[in-house]
UniProtKB/TrEMBL annotation:
Positions that bind N(1)-(5-phospho-beta-D-ribosyl)glycinamide: 11-13
Active site, per annotation: 108
Record family assignment: Belongs to the GART family.
Protein name: Phosphoribosylglycinamide formyltransferase
Organism superkingdom: Bacteria
Catalytic reactions on record: N(1)-(5-phospho-beta-D-ribosyl)glycinamide + (6R)-10-formyltetrahydrofolate = N(2)-formyl-N(1)-(5-phospho-beta-D-ribosyl)glycinamide + (6S)-5,6,7,8-tetrahydrofolate + H(+)
Organism: Methylocystis borbori
Keywords, ordered alphabetically: Purine biosynthesis, Transferase
Amino acid sequence: LRTAILISGRGSNMDALIEAARRPDYPAEIALVLSNRPDAPGLAKAKTAGVAAAAVDHKIYAGREEFERSLQLVLEAYRIDFICLAGFMRLFTPWFIEQWRGRMLNIHPALLPSYRGLHTHERALADGVKIHGCTVHFVVPEMDEGPIVAQAAVPVLDGDTPETLAARVLAQEHAIYPLALRLVASGVARIEGNRVLGALAAS
Ligand code: GRF
């Protein structure tokens, strides 16, 4: 499965996916890293890791659709058949999502359906929840919704700051994203309605 990872920044989940996909028995190949920001630190890391890396700068396009058509052309040029969003900070139009229906995963730093959107760790701390975590899910037109492939839970500890909690969650993100892609790419996990059968829970 020729997979593209879409990033906007640091790319630590990208690193975890690239590393996992090096294993000869891994069912997906990371064929491209694509960023909407030419200065994303992840792009340089991808090149160092020997993975093709490209940028499609959203700022130079008149609108979302023009930007997405350009993304789509690059994805087609690299014969990509699966997408992993990993800290990609642009919302897609329904057109783009339809092109990739059932073939695009995202990772979100919260236990969906709780804490959709941004600043998840700050909001979890403010609410005093004791369990927090991360979710890998298929992408649908609604933001941070879609069939769930994998979740991992972490405890929220007394004295946590958004930074310490984020770090605990991030370690789990790096564990479950490669597992989730493996489950989907191998066909073990599959969508049925709005659920994924063969999904994974970790804590
Ligand atoms: C991660 O916390 C991910 O869950 C969120 O954005 C962050 C990206 O981090 N969507 P990185 O670029 O993978 O290091």
